[in-house]
Amino acid sequence: MEKLQQYRQIIRAVLTEQAHPYAYSKDVETSIICDTEHDHYQLSYIGWQDQKRIFNVILHFDIKDGKIWIQHNGTEVAIAQVLTEKGVLASDLVLGFHSPFKRQFSGYAIA
Hints:
Elements (H helix, E strand, L loop, with lengths): L1 H17 L9 E8 L4 E10 L2 E13 L2 E7 L5 H7 L7 E3 L4 H4 L8
């Protein structure tokens, strides 16, 4: 349970570090969602830029069976590396955006 709490805190810290104001419109909100009951975590932009609806998921993490699944990384940052630098074991990271076949070559967990 202690590791789970630690991983939740690390994910929150990473989301907060990556949360930047949307550069093109003051009507777009930067949103951090932390569902600790179901262990879903997301950083997104939501709002309007002129007459265009903006809904962009920037980062999405899940915690499943004690492992952090990186479901989406829309940044230019190597998020898996950031997580390991903050104390997440590489064996507890799954690159969910890669196919199961490709994960075996990642240096991280397969599932």
